[in-house]
Amino acid sequence: MVNQLDNACILIVDDEQSIREGSERILSRMGCRALTASRGEEGLAILDREPVSIVLLDMKMPGMDGMEVLKEITLKHKHILVIVITGYATVETAIEAMKKGAYDFIPKPFEPDQLRIVINRALEKQRLTMEAEKSELARQRTLLDLDTEKSRVRSIVESLPNGVLVTNAKGRVVLMNPACRRYLGIPPEKETGLPVEEYISDKGMCRLIMEISEGCHVDYDDIPTYEFASAAETYLLARARPVLGEKRECLGTVVNFADVTAMKVLDRLKSEFVAKVSHELRSPLSTIHEQLALVMNDMVGEMSKNDAHLLSRAKEKTQGLISLIGDLLDLSRIESGSVCQEAKSIQLEDLLRGIVDFLGTRAKTKRQSLTLQLPKAPLSPLTSDPLALESIFGNLIANAINYTPEGGEIKVVADQAGVNLRVRVQDTGFGIEAKHLDKIFERFYRVQDEKTRFITGTGLGLPIVKGLLDSMNGVIQVESEPGVGTTFTVLIPAIK
Length: 496
Description:
By secondary structure, the chain is α/β, with parallel strands linked by helices. It is about 45% helix and about 20% strand. It has four domains: about 10-130, Rossmann fold (3-Layer(aba) Sandwich), CATH 3.40.50.2300; about 140-260, Beta-Lactamase, CATH 3.30.450; about 265-335, Helix Hairpins (Orthogonal Bundle), CATH 1.10.287; about 345-495, 2-Layer Sandwich (Heat Shock Protein 90), CATH 3.30.565.10. The chain is built from 14 helices and 17 strands.
């Protein structure tokens, strides 16, 4: 295949020398100019001085990781296409990167042909984008013109590999390219001009398109991406944006659909593997833990201090592994959608009293004050899974106990906030530095410093909390100051 851009400049950012050198050789033979960087900081410096059009970016690097570099590129170099390099074990990271602006991904290890295909696809994308921009500047016309005029822009849109759908201000579809028809399972003979509900069965996607078409989202930053399964049994990631006139009036909506079915399948296989392995390991680990406890009880006074310490550490480590397996199984259930199925009417204050009473003993062993503050008037009832709510608030309160030194205070405050129920878990603990706040909900991420490095944990508690709240349309926010304490605020929709 002939390169789409003459002498395109491509930057390879990877800490593995073999990947950098191999990719450079392949790209040079394709007629591209290849630059390399072994660290994220070095790559960003090159972007400031070189006319790079595509970046091959490794997700796992020392120093700045790939996600931080991607964030900087999308902020400062919006014209650059980023192709992330990832292993199969981190496909979830690749999906997250594409949600945050990456164009494509390629898994390690990759063959030369795989790299050529993804690079040529990116070059073609840039060529088409450049042509579309030139045509748009040369021809000012309405969205309805795009549907009737056999124009150059129309040909470009129809040749795009991703699905494109355009509506007018009334939510009627005025343009669809062949890829969009294929993704949505729409036959070629079906004409445009009907309401968007006639083409897309997912009600949430239709509602978002109508909101944008009616001018509810004039600023691009507040429009979320949307995932759904189409009638053609394809998982799609949709990015919808308003089309604005000269006076910033909304003329309609343009929606870009990307097929993420393969990544969803890989993600499901990974979750199934984790669940299977976890089930197989939990039973023998529990047996080992019980046997260690039995040996320690039967040999009290007969063991040396060193032997007792070793057995105690072994018992502690097996308990940590059992907790990790439990958390992994919880995450698998959240990903499979099998949580929050047993919805019941719940009074939140009763549930919080039970959790605070249960964890109060643990707080007393550290001479901590654990209190619950409730409003005088009863809170609105919730319809939710009580086990999910217990997991959410149990994790947050247990974390507050673990990360608050002896003699500290933990306060749980519940109140009504409009149509939401609000619960704040406040502590006077070690606090979290600002640089960690946007990462604490990532799996296995733990803040470890001189004060917290001896605290055991799996790094999965907060991701579980976030996953459960997402499944019930809830929100979690965090405010923290090192040396002062941390406050987690949870908002859950209540029954009106």
